[in-house]
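Lab notebook, bench 4. The sequencing result for the construct came back, and we need a structural model before the next group meeting so we can plan mutations. Quick request posted to the team channel:

Model the 3D structure of this chain.
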Amino acid sequence: MERQTRQEYIHDLEVVQNLVATMGDKALDNVEKSMKALLGGDTALAKSVMKADDVIDDMIIDVEDKCILLIAKQQPIAHDLRVIATGFKISTDIERIGDHAFDIAKTAVSVNEPLNPDCKHWIEELGNSAAAMLRRAVKAYRDKSVQEADEVRKLDKQMDDVFEHTFYALSDFVTKEGARQKGATQLLFIARFLERIGDHAVNIAEWVIYLETAEHIHQKKNRLI
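Done. Here's the predicted structure in C-alpha cell form:
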C-alpha cells in the first residue's frame, strides 16, 4: 500500500510538471501567433490569440490547485518540495507571458495601417529573440536540463542588446515621423512587452536551475527605461 501511495505521489508530481510545460507551449504559441498577426496585419489571428489567453488563465488555476493539494496531503520536502514551488513560480511567469502575448495581439487589432518596413524589421528581430528564449526555457524545464537553462541566461545579454537597438531606433523614427506613423509609437510598447517576455524566460531558466541544484541564481539587470 505504501509503495502504491508513493507511486501515485510521483505521478501527481509529474502531472504538475507536464501541465506547467504544456502551459509554456501554449504561451509560446500565443507569442508567435501574436507577432505573426502584428507583422501580417491579421486581425482574425490576433483575436484568436486574445481568446486563447483564457486557456492559460484556466491552466494556472489548475496548477495552483494541484500544488496546494499535494502540499496538504503529502507535506513534501527536499526535491519534491522544489518541484511544487517551481511549479507555482514558473506557471506565474508563463501566465504573465500569456498576458504580454494578449497585449501584442490587442495592439495588432488596433493598428489599422501597414507597418513601416524598417520598424517591422526591428520588431520582428526582437520578437524572434524573445520566442527563441522562451522556447529554450520551456525545453530546459521539460528536460530538467541545467545546461539548457544556462544557455537561456546567456541569451539574455543578446536580447538586451537587440531591445536597446530596437527601442532607440523606434524612438528616433517616432520623433522624426511624428503623427504620420502612429503604428510606430505602439511598437514601442510592443518592444517593451517582448523584452519582458525575455525576462520571464530567464526567470523560468533560473527556477529550473533551482529545481535541479537547490541553488538560487537571480540575474540582476540595469533597466533601459
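The first helix runs from residue 2 to 40.
Will bring this to the meeting.
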